[in-house]
Amino acid sequence: MVTVYERAFDWNEWFVIVSLFGLIIIWKLPKILSPLEGTAHFLYGMLVVTFYDHTISIKPWDFFDVNDSSAFQFMDFLSYITYGPYAYIFIYLYKKLEIKGYKNLLYVSAWSLFSLLMELLSLKAGVYHYDKGYSMFWSFPIYLIAQIVQIFFYHTSLKLEKAAE
Amino acid sequence: MALPAAIVITLYQIYFFYLLKKRLSFLQNSIVFMFIFILLTYFSTIINLQLKWLDVTEDSLLFMFYLLNRDIIKPLFVLVFINVFAGGKTFGKKGIIFIAMVLSMLLLDILSQIFGVVTYIKWNLFYAALANGAFLMLGLGLAKGVKYLKRVSS
Predict the structure, then answer these.
(1) Are A13 and A77 contacting, i.e. CB atoms less than 8 angstroms apart?
(2) pLDDT tens digits, B10-22
Protein backbone atom coordinates (compact mmCIF):
# COMPACT_ATOMS: atom_id res chain seq x y z
CA MET A 1 0.00 0.00 0.00
CA VAL A 2 1.30 3.48 -0.90
CA THR A 3 1.70 5.86 2.06
CA VAL A 4 1.10 9.51 1.17
CA TYR A 5 2.71 12.03 3.55
CA GLU A 6 1.58 15.18 1.78
CA ARG A 7 0.72 16.45 -1.70
CA ALA A 8 1.78 20.12 -1.54
CA PHE A 9 4.81 21.60 -3.34
CA ASP A 10 6.69 22.76 -0.25
CA TRP A 11 9.91 22.42 1.74
CA ASN A 12 11.04 19.01 0.50
CA GLU A 13 10.65 20.00 -3.17
CA TRP A 14 12.42 23.33 -2.58
CA PHE A 15 15.21 21.56 -0.67
CA VAL A 16 15.80 19.25 -3.66
CA ILE A 17 15.63 22.12 -6.19
CA VAL A 18 18.08 24.28 -4.18
CA SER A 19 20.39 21.26 -3.84
CA LEU A 20 20.44 20.96 -7.64
CA PHE A 21 22.47 24.21 -7.66
CA GLY A 22 25.35 21.89 -6.79
CA LEU A 23 25.38 21.12 -10.53
CA ILE A 24 26.18 24.77 -11.26
CA ILE A 25 28.93 24.75 -8.64
CA ILE A 26 30.71 21.79 -10.24
CA TRP A 27 30.26 23.39 -13.67
CA LYS A 28 31.99 26.56 -12.44
CA LEU A 29 34.81 24.86 -10.50
CA PRO A 30 38.28 24.86 -12.12
CA LYS A 31 38.69 21.55 -13.95
CA ILE A 32 41.28 19.65 -11.96
CA LEU A 33 39.51 16.34 -12.61
CA SER A 34 39.41 14.95 -16.17
CA PRO A 35 35.94 14.55 -17.75
CA LEU A 36 36.27 10.77 -17.26
CA GLU A 37 37.16 11.16 -13.56
CA GLY A 38 34.49 13.79 -12.98
CA THR A 39 31.76 11.68 -14.60
CA ALA A 40 32.81 8.57 -12.69
CA HIS A 41 32.76 10.30 -9.29
CA PHE A 42 29.50 12.09 -10.04
CA LEU A 43 27.89 8.77 -10.94
CA TYR A 44 29.39 7.16 -7.84
CA GLY A 45 27.43 9.59 -5.64
CA MET A 46 24.22 8.74 -7.48
CA LEU A 47 24.99 5.03 -7.34
CA VAL A 48 25.47 4.97 -3.57
CA VAL A 49 22.21 6.78 -2.77
CA THR A 50 20.29 4.78 -5.41
CA PHE A 51 21.61 1.52 -4.01
CA TYR A 52 20.75 2.31 -0.38
CA ASP A 53 17.36 3.89 -1.08
CA HIS A 54 16.24 1.17 -3.47
CA THR A 55 17.48 -1.57 -1.16
CA ILE A 56 16.56 -0.63 2.40
CA SER A 57 13.54 1.55 1.64
CA ILE A 58 11.71 -1.22 -0.25
CA LYS A 59 10.31 -4.52 1.00
CA PRO A 60 11.38 -6.80 2.66
CA TRP A 61 13.22 -4.19 4.75
CA ASP A 62 11.36 -0.95 3.96
CA PHE A 63 12.91 1.22 6.70
CA PHE A 64 12.00 4.68 5.36
CA ASP A 65 10.30 6.67 2.58
CA VAL A 66 11.52 9.48 0.31
CA ASN A 67 9.59 12.73 -0.44
CA ASP A 68 5.78 12.98 -0.53
CA SER A 69 4.86 9.30 -0.70
CA SER A 70 6.29 5.80 -0.45
CA ALA A 71 5.93 5.46 -4.25
CA PHE A 72 8.89 6.21 -6.56
CA GLN A 73 8.38 9.75 -7.91
CA PHE A 74 10.21 12.07 -10.29
CA MET A 75 11.21 14.25 -7.31
CA ASP A 76 12.94 11.18 -5.80
CA PHE A 77 14.99 10.86 -8.98
CA LEU A 78 15.94 14.56 -8.80
CA SER A 79 16.94 14.13 -5.15
CA TYR A 80 19.31 11.31 -6.20
CA ILE A 81 20.95 13.60 -8.76
CA THR A 82 21.82 16.03 -5.95
CA TYR A 83 24.19 13.41 -4.51
CA GLY A 84 26.35 13.56 -7.66
CA PRO A 85 27.80 17.02 -6.87
CA TYR A 86 28.53 15.93 -3.26
CA ALA A 87 30.62 13.00 -4.46
CA TYR A 88 32.28 15.20 -7.11
CA ILE A 89 33.19 17.96 -4.62
CA PHE A 90 34.33 15.34 -2.09
CA ILE A 91 36.98 14.00 -4.47
CA TYR A 92 37.68 17.46 -5.94
CA LEU A 93 38.69 18.84 -2.54
CA TYR A 94 40.51 15.60 -1.73
CA LYS A 95 42.72 16.17 -4.75
CA LYS A 96 43.01 19.94 -4.35
CA LEU A 97 43.92 19.77 -0.64
CA GLU A 98 46.33 16.88 -1.34
CA ILE A 99 44.98 14.77 1.51
CA LYS A 100 47.49 12.09 2.49
CA GLY A 101 48.19 9.68 5.39
CA TYR A 102 46.26 10.18 8.64
CA LYS A 103 44.62 13.32 7.23
CA ASN A 104 42.37 10.84 5.40
CA LEU A 105 40.73 9.91 8.72
CA LEU A 106 40.02 13.54 9.52
CA TYR A 107 38.77 14.19 5.99
CA VAL A 108 36.26 11.30 5.83
CA SER A 109 35.10 12.02 9.42
CA ALA A 110 34.47 15.69 8.61
CA TRP A 111 32.60 14.79 5.42
CA SER A 112 30.56 12.11 7.19
CA LEU A 113 29.53 14.66 9.85
CA PHE A 114 28.68 17.18 7.14
CA SER A 115 26.63 14.53 5.30
CA LEU A 116 24.81 13.74 8.55
CA LEU A 117 24.01 17.43 8.99
CA MET A 118 22.66 17.62 5.41
CA GLU A 119 20.60 14.49 6.07
CA LEU A 120 19.17 16.11 9.21
CA LEU A 121 18.19 19.18 7.17
CA SER A 122 16.59 17.02 4.49
CA LEU A 123 14.74 15.10 7.21
CA LYS A 124 13.39 18.38 8.62
CA ALA A 125 12.42 19.50 5.10
CA GLY A 126 10.47 16.27 4.55
CA VAL A 127 12.72 14.73 1.89
CA TYR A 128 13.08 11.65 4.12
CA HIS A 129 10.52 10.05 6.43
CA TYR A 130 11.94 7.79 9.11
CA ASP A 131 8.59 6.82 10.65
CA LYS A 132 9.16 3.15 9.80
CA GLY A 133 12.01 2.73 12.26
CA TYR A 134 15.17 3.92 10.47
CA SER A 135 17.62 5.74 12.72
CA MET A 136 20.15 8.35 11.57
CA PHE A 137 22.81 6.57 13.67
CA TRP A 138 22.99 4.04 10.82
CA SER A 139 23.81 6.75 8.32
CA PHE A 140 27.19 7.64 9.81
CA PRO A 141 28.80 4.23 9.13
CA ILE A 142 27.13 4.18 5.71
CA TYR A 143 28.72 7.57 4.85
CA LEU A 144 32.08 6.37 6.17
CA ILE A 145 31.96 3.23 4.02
CA ALA A 146 30.82 5.14 0.94
CA GLN A 147 33.57 7.76 1.28
CA ILE A 148 36.37 5.31 2.10
CA VAL A 149 35.36 3.21 -0.94
CA GLN A 150 35.34 6.38 -3.06
CA ILE A 151 38.90 7.21 -1.98
CA PHE A 152 39.99 3.64 -2.84
CA PHE A 153 38.20 3.98 -6.18
CA TYR A 154 40.02 7.26 -6.85
CA HIS A 155 43.48 5.82 -6.12
CA THR A 156 42.78 2.57 -8.01
CA SER A 157 41.59 4.50 -11.06
CA LEU A 158 44.69 6.74 -10.97
CA LYS A 159 46.97 3.70 -10.81
CA LEU A 160 45.19 1.66 -13.49
CA GLU A 161 44.66 4.56 -15.89
CA LYS A 162 48.35 5.46 -15.61
CA ALA A 163 49.34 1.82 -16.19
CA ALA A 164 47.09 1.64 -19.28
CA GLU A 165 48.74 4.68 -20.94
CA MET B 1 19.68 -23.00 -2.81
CA ALA B 2 18.81 -19.69 -4.48
CA LEU B 3 21.32 -17.55 -2.61
CA PRO B 4 24.31 -19.92 -2.98
CA ALA B 5 23.48 -20.19 -6.70
CA ALA B 6 23.44 -16.41 -7.04
CA ILE B 7 26.72 -16.08 -5.13
CA VAL B 8 28.38 -18.72 -7.35
CA ILE B 9 27.16 -17.01 -10.54
CA THR B 10 28.33 -13.63 -9.23
CA LEU B 11 31.80 -14.93 -8.30
CA TYR B 12 32.28 -16.69 -11.64
CA GLN B 13 31.17 -13.60 -13.48
CA ILE B 14 33.45 -11.25 -11.54
CA TYR B 15 36.37 -13.62 -12.11
CA PHE B 16 35.52 -14.00 -15.80
CA PHE B 17 35.39 -10.22 -16.20
CA TYR B 18 38.70 -9.86 -14.34
CA LEU B 19 40.34 -12.30 -16.78
CA LEU B 20 38.64 -10.86 -19.86
CA LYS B 21 40.74 -8.82 -22.28
CA LYS B 22 39.11 -5.44 -21.85
CA ARG B 23 38.73 -2.94 -24.68
CA LEU B 24 37.79 -0.13 -22.32
CA SER B 25 39.88 1.33 -19.49
CA PHE B 26 39.08 0.93 -15.78
CA LEU B 27 37.35 4.33 -15.57
CA GLN B 28 35.43 3.78 -18.79
CA ASN B 29 34.19 0.38 -17.61
CA SER B 30 33.34 1.88 -14.19
CA ILE B 31 31.23 4.63 -15.78
CA VAL B 32 29.28 2.14 -17.92
CA PHE B 33 28.81 -0.16 -14.91
CA MET B 34 27.52 2.64 -12.68
CA PHE B 35 25.22 4.06 -15.35
CA ILE B 36 23.66 0.64 -16.05
CA PHE B 37 23.49 -0.10 -12.30
CA ILE B 38 21.53 3.11 -11.65
CA LEU B 39 19.15 2.70 -14.63
CA LEU B 40 18.57 -0.98 -13.91
CA THR B 41 17.71 -0.14 -10.30
CA TYR B 42 15.17 2.53 -11.33
CA PHE B 43 13.77 0.21 -13.98
CA SER B 44 13.37 -2.64 -11.47
CA THR B 45 11.70 -0.35 -8.93
CA ILE B 46 9.32 1.12 -11.50
CA ILE B 47 8.12 -2.23 -12.90
CA ASN B 48 7.83 -3.65 -9.39
CA LEU B 49 6.51 -0.85 -7.16
CA GLN B 50 4.91 1.58 -9.61
CA LEU B 51 3.48 -0.53 -12.42
CA LYS B 52 3.17 -3.73 -10.35
CA TRP B 53 4.00 -5.82 -13.41
CA LEU B 54 5.88 -8.20 -11.18
CA ASP B 55 6.10 -8.98 -7.51
CA VAL B 56 9.42 -9.25 -5.64
CA THR B 57 9.83 -11.64 -2.71
CA GLU B 58 9.57 -10.35 0.86
CA ASP B 59 11.90 -13.12 2.08
CA SER B 60 15.19 -11.48 3.13
CA LEU B 61 17.43 -14.30 1.88
CA LEU B 62 15.70 -14.58 -1.48
CA PHE B 63 15.83 -10.80 -1.76
CA MET B 64 19.64 -11.08 -1.72
CA PHE B 65 19.34 -13.08 -4.97
CA TYR B 66 17.32 -10.20 -6.41
CA LEU B 67 19.95 -7.68 -5.28
CA LEU B 68 22.89 -9.66 -6.67
CA ASN B 69 21.06 -10.08 -9.97
CA ARG B 70 20.03 -6.40 -10.21
CA ASP B 71 23.20 -4.79 -8.89
CA ILE B 72 26.09 -7.00 -9.97
CA ILE B 73 25.21 -9.83 -12.35
CA LYS B 74 23.18 -7.89 -14.95
CA PRO B 75 25.40 -4.76 -15.05
CA LEU B 76 28.42 -7.08 -15.39
CA PHE B 77 26.72 -8.87 -18.28
CA VAL B 78 26.52 -5.50 -20.05
CA LEU B 79 30.22 -4.85 -19.33
CA VAL B 80 31.23 -8.30 -20.60
CA PHE B 81 29.07 -7.74 -23.67
CA ILE B 82 30.54 -4.37 -24.68
CA ASN B 83 34.10 -5.60 -24.17
CA VAL B 84 33.55 -8.86 -26.10
CA PHE B 85 31.39 -7.19 -28.77
CA ALA B 86 34.17 -4.76 -29.64
CA GLY B 87 36.38 -7.77 -30.45
CA GLY B 88 33.79 -9.33 -32.80
CA LYS B 89 35.17 -9.06 -36.33
CA THR B 90 32.08 -9.77 -38.45
CA PHE B 91 28.44 -8.75 -38.22
CA GLY B 92 27.49 -12.42 -37.78
CA LYS B 93 29.83 -12.89 -34.83
CA LYS B 94 28.54 -9.72 -33.21
CA GLY B 95 24.97 -10.95 -33.68
CA ILE B 96 25.81 -14.28 -32.04
CA ILE B 97 27.45 -12.48 -29.08
CA PHE B 98 24.34 -10.30 -28.66
CA ILE B 99 21.92 -13.26 -28.76
CA ALA B 100 24.11 -15.31 -26.38
CA MET B 101 24.14 -12.44 -23.88
CA VAL B 102 20.38 -11.86 -24.08
CA LEU B 103 19.81 -15.59 -23.51
CA SER B 104 22.26 -15.68 -20.57
CA MET B 105 20.48 -12.76 -18.94
CA LEU B 106 17.16 -14.44 -19.63
CA LEU B 107 18.42 -17.57 -17.88
CA LEU B 108 18.88 -15.44 -14.76
CA ASP B 109 15.29 -14.20 -15.13
CA ILE B 110 14.08 -17.79 -15.45
CA LEU B 111 16.07 -18.79 -12.34
CA SER B 112 14.55 -15.81 -10.46
CA GLN B 113 11.11 -17.19 -11.31
CA ILE B 114 11.97 -20.80 -10.46
CA PHE B 115 13.39 -19.82 -7.05
CA GLY B 116 10.38 -17.61 -6.31
CA VAL B 117 12.43 -14.42 -6.17
CA VAL B 118 9.99 -12.70 -8.54
CA THR B 119 6.45 -13.54 -9.59
CA TYR B 120 5.29 -12.24 -12.95
CA ILE B 121 1.92 -10.48 -12.98
CA LYS B 122 1.79 -8.45 -16.20
CA TRP B 123 5.37 -9.29 -17.16
CA ASN B 124 6.70 -12.22 -19.17
CA LEU B 125 9.95 -13.65 -20.51
CA PHE B 126 9.49 -11.95 -23.88
CA TYR B 127 9.37 -8.53 -22.20
CA ALA B 128 12.33 -9.56 -20.05
CA ALA B 129 14.30 -10.48 -23.19
CA LEU B 130 13.39 -7.12 -24.77
CA ALA B 131 14.51 -5.27 -21.63
CA ASN B 132 17.78 -7.24 -21.50
CA GLY B 133 18.42 -6.49 -25.17
CA ALA B 134 17.69 -2.80 -24.58
CA PHE B 135 20.19 -2.64 -21.72
CA LEU B 136 22.84 -4.32 -23.88
CA MET B 137 22.22 -1.82 -26.69
CA LEU B 138 22.34 1.01 -24.17
CA GLY B 139 25.70 -0.39 -23.02
CA LEU B 140 27.00 -0.07 -26.60
CA GLY B 141 25.83 3.54 -26.71
CA LEU B 142 27.51 4.25 -23.39
CA ALA B 143 30.72 2.62 -24.63
CA LYS B 144 30.77 5.15 -27.48
CA GLY B 145 30.10 7.93 -24.97
CA VAL B 146 33.00 6.96 -22.70
CA LYS B 147 35.33 6.64 -25.68
CA TYR B 148 34.45 10.24 -26.52
CA LEU B 149 35.08 11.25 -22.88
CA LYS B 150 38.48 9.57 -23.04
CA ARG B 151 39.38 11.55 -26.18
CA VAL B 152 38.30 14.77 -24.46
CA SER B 153 40.25 13.83 -21.32
CA SER B 154 43.54 13.17 -23.10
Answers:
(1) no
(2) 999 999 999 999 9
